[in-house]
Amino acid sequence: MASMTLRLPTAQLCKAARSSSFRPSFRCAQQQMRWLATPTTHPVTQKNVGTAMVFLNMGGPSTLDEVGDFLSRLFADADLIPLGRLQNYLGPLISKRRTPKIQKQYGAIGGGSPIRKWSEYQCEEMCKILDQISPETAPHKPYVAFRYANPLTEEMYKKLLADGFGNGKGGRAVAFTQYPQYSCSTTGSSLNELWKWRQRLEGKAGPSEDGKDGTIRWSVIDRWPIHPGLVEAFARNIEEKLAEYPEERRKDVVLLFSAHSLPMSVVNRGDPYPQEIGATVQAVMQRLNFSNPYRLCYQSQVGPQPWLGPQTQTSVEEYIHKGQKDLVLIPIAFTSDHIETLYELDQEVIGESGHPDTVKRVESLNGNPVFIKALADLAKEHLDSGLACSHQNSLRCPGCKSERCAASKKFFAGQEIIPGH
Prior knowledge:
alpha/beta; Rossmann fold; 3 domains; four-stranded parallel beta sheet; 17 helices; 10 strands; about 15% strand; globular; EC 4.98.1.1; mitochondrion inner membrane; Ferrochelatase_AS
């Protein structure tokens, strides 16, 4: 299905997307607009260099040789895996010890993560649709910035400058998180990294011809957990998978929504991730008219410290032990395939369940035309809004002690954005 979608021309994608009948479960559009915040004022007149659409994500190693560097960056990030004062010592130690094991896992899924391929494809196809539905902000130029793998945020920013953005010329860029549900450890970390490289590469930029400082004007799509297009894409994939079960058993199949877990230290600090994951699950189930029993569980826990649960693999084992063998796994926090779906869910959870014919996983969003159109719709709403980021993005967690987080949030909230420019 994924490979077939990749071959669809843009015209077909647009046609398929236009014919899709969204049935949103909440008044999502209204709520999304309330979440997009911080209007800006001062008009800027300058030559249009287009709009850079920058997808933010964790990333993954494309080859086995990249696994070590990927893990090293990951365990060095205190926003994602807080190790306290021993971060600089324990991070490299843990990554070095885990590298051989993780290399074997990537070897089992083809020798690398497909997340770069999918991210670049999704962003390119979204930009093609945006050029049609938002000509006033065209051309839309696709970029991908990964937090722990190539292309890194630093590489992306240097490419932006080389492509004519900034350097006294201004230009607009949208940082579009590919984590639909916000967490300080994912979207927050990516925005902190983006802010860091903005300060390093543009912090001392000189004035431009129009009197402004000539730096890139950034705005942020920082969360979209109940966007109707996202909900519809998930719901359709679930319906397709349920259709594989005999009709007499179908309504009793248990839907297990699986999201990436978080350390409880992050959750207890006030991170909004659990609530936003729950909002997505609720919206999808309402779109499905609560047709099946369901639960939310979490995967990818690392280390001995307490993490958000229950764990996905344990949940599957316990349900099978109770006699419930018809289970459908839904990776609800991911927008494409990567090691968490292809190895953890497919090979560990399902492969080790002993019931691969009744324990199944829905297709990931990948090149789904409904999902691609949803990305374009969300981007169009944001471009037209004249808003820099959501009200939520400006709010720090009650237990936040990070000055970098405070500075990053202040920077993005203070960006000057004009609707349709």
